Amino acid sequence: MRPLLGLASSPPPLLLLPVFLLLLLQLLGHGSAEMSERLARKLNETMALQSVAYSRVNETGLAYNATTKFNPRGMGQLYNVTNMFIDLVQRKQAYPEGMIRLVNGTPVLADPTSEWHIILTHYGGLAGLGLAGILLAAVLPCVGLFFCCCRCAGNCGARSEPFDKKHDHCRKIMLSVILIGFATILLFGVVCAFATNEQMQEGTRDLPKAARTSLGDVKLYLGTTKRQVETLLKVNYDELELALNVILQASGKIVTEQLAESSHAVSLMNLNDIVAGLDNIRKDLKMMNDITKELRNNASHLEILVRKVRGNLLQTLTNCGTQDCKDVMHKYKISEMTVKVDFDKYLDRYFPKLPDLDVTYVLNNISHLMDDNIVMEVRKGMDQFMNIQKEIQQAVNQTIPIVSASIRRAGESLATVASNIIQLIDRLNIDIDKKYVPQLEFARRHIEQYSPYRYYLGLGISSILLTVLMCLSFGLLCGICGKRPDGYGDDCCNKGSGARFLMMAVWIIFLLTSILMIITVVHMITGVLVERAICEPLKNPSDNRMFELVDEYLQIKRVLYPKNPHADINMSYILNTCHKNETIYRVLKLQYIIDVDSLRGYIDRYDINQTIHQLEQKISLSHDYKIISEAAREKLNALAQSGLSDIKFYQYTENLRDNITNINLEQLGSKLLDLALRLPRGYDNVKEDLLKNAYDLEGYHRDIVNPMSNLSSLLSSSAIELQEHIKFNHTSMAQAIHSLVDEVDKAQIFITESGPAHVKTLAAEFGKAFIYQVNSYLNYVINNTLTKVGKCGPISNAYNATIVSGCNKILDPFNGFWASVGWCLVLFIPTIVLCVKLSALYQKSDPYPGPLVESEYLYDAYADRDNVPLAHVHDKKYVAHGRHHPVGGYPEIYNGPAIGYSDREHIADAHQSSSHHDSRYSDLAPKNWDFPNGGPPRYQPAAVAPPLSTEYERPPPYYYPGPGERN
């Protein structure tokens, strides 16, 4: 079969004839090695004229558009890690062995109760991971509710001391750094979630277009394969049949020409060529004779004119007497001006070197021989030899219809095979148009309708993650860079705001993580199952249970070969061989339609061998043929003695290559004109004579010398051409004629004595050469069918492009999406703890006061806080939530136990002595204890406004951190 790809690389079978014929002719019973070489060369030259120029399918401009390129755009490592994770939690096979089987074409599942341990082992990793996600989704709301109640009760970081503990500063730094690390990792997950969601949407939107492009490539491949199969098995065989019929029609000529070469009867053909060319030779001789006569006449006339001009010039230039006239006369040698070559045969002193033999004599001899029918006499022998060809061709013509019918039957059989293959390809094309294209259109409409919902779902999930990340980022930014909270007049981005941002992230996590976790688990299970059930079998069809199940279910052999239920072919075999770029014959196992090796038996199956043997029997030589007569021999000898070989044509060239005159008449005329114009006054007569002679010379050169030069060139070239033509590859025509006559005599003896046997040998070898051409075509078909026709590269590329469009551009982003979201959800758990801890630390308004003050504060400020009278409960709440701050930033009213001046001084001194290492924790309040009212402020009734006082008032312990800002 003709190859689909690389069609031009295989030579036509007839180009192999030179090698074959050299081997063929060595088998000739009669001939020697030299004769075998001549036979091979002659048969090759003759059959080369009928060589088959096989038609080829024009593949220029065919373009396959499907592409396997995939750009993950920075998500490649995520996809690789996700696939490694999938390999870790789930086995390569989609289902355990024996779980699904086909019964009468229907899938049947195994009993889960009896095979539960196998199912658990196979799906344990994925099921455990999904169950863990579901449990986390169920537990997390309960934890959030408990945490909310705990916060409402004032615990779990809801209330804390207003000042830092001893190591809170280090805790804040350490926890902030850890939370920054978690936020950075969360940032990676959020970015991947957005990117994969976008890539997934793009891949989903482009999937129908990519699938349609792949189907277009498949149809283009099938259409090209169809045309090439038809061209190979139908068109090329028709071309071979036509060439074989032409060779059959020329079989008599082929055998006769080889017989002529073997017997040296080709000399008779050469003699016939010689006498056939006598008419042209006679015409050439007559032309040469006419040119010679015309040259002689012109030369005589030119000589008279030149003499006359010479005399006038000598007299005029002598009468002139000027130096210019003398210079012209001496420079151009006016006295010696003459015609250089005289063509007049009567003037021997001007014509000493022309050929000794007159052309007219030879012309008369040739005309006499032609009138004596020398051409017809030689032609009779040639006709006798050509009768051999006619006899052979007439005998062959009786067998040609039988041979042609056998060849035609073989061609019809190949055409039937081609039709079967074409029908199979057409059926595949129809399935594509009627089944797959409408399904693609249906999928496209649904994708355009429903894919935006999935996209917006992914976008919402990614936005939730981004919201949590932003809360964490703002919380960390405010908590690290902001000031401590002070109450009214605080900055909007102080540490208290950071605490609130962190707690906002915590509440979002508690509220939405369960929903996100359920969605993530569903995505994970779907992505893993699709990867194992669809993409993995498509990428690696070998040794895959799912693909084996599909093979068994589809029964592709019923589609391809419905009449052959035992055909051993399935989808996995087709894909594997197609990926190896095998031919369509191997991919589809077209041996179920035709076994190409059986083509070698076509010659015997359709009786081509037998009919060619009958053809050989018809080729014979049964009569005596006289190829040269005595009359022809005598006339040829007379032609050799005609004198044509004695003419020395080279002398024409030697004598005619010089100028006609010894002085260039045109140049001399120009010089005379110039001289006449330069003569002074008083030389009018001389000037007139010079002008007249100048015009005469220019006219003679134009009208006589130039035509004679042209005739001389024509005569010279004709003489040289005729001299080479009449030699006939010998030294002379006479020698050629004598040699050819001798060879024709030898050919007559060969034809009479050995002609019949030699013709039989030629017939046998011709039959072998004919059969060889048929076998060459069949071998050509077999070789290209097995190795070159329909290489499956385009189909493999279209298949891989579809997998890339579905698995790499959709499923990989899908799996990367749930992996990114799941990664973030897992990180939310430690993030909650860190946020709660940091929130409690960020809410404290005062730095660490020292161990003594801290202990006193805890005792005085909190131990007796419940002893406040019930009448002041309302005021306490009011102060706690809406207290006024003086310039120092501390409360003016404290509803706690009073403390005296001495106690206050004692506490301040104790604080200073215990905190001298850090001056910012020392009490820098003014030491003016002389208040106008004689002592520290006392508690006043609620209805009585406190008196104005400049005294520094605060609740115990009396601690003043300093006038600067407290960060």
UniProtKB/TrEMBL annotation:
InterPro entries: Prominin. The keyword Membrane applies. The keyword Phosphoprotein does not apply. Keywords: Glycoprotein, Membrane, Signal, Transmembrane, Transmembrane helix. The chain crosses the membrane at residues 126-153, 173-196, 455-480, 501-525, 817-836. Residues 1-33 form the signal peptide. It comes from the Eukaryota. It is a multi-pass membrane protein. Residues 908-921 have a biased composition (Basic and acidic residues). GO terms for cellular component: membrane. Pfam families: Prominin (PF05478). It is found in: Membrane. Residues 908-967 are annotated as: Disordered. Coiled coil: none annotated. PANTHER family: PROMININ PROM PROTEIN, PROMININ-LIKE PROTEIN. Belongs to the prominin family. This is Prominin-like protein isoform X3.
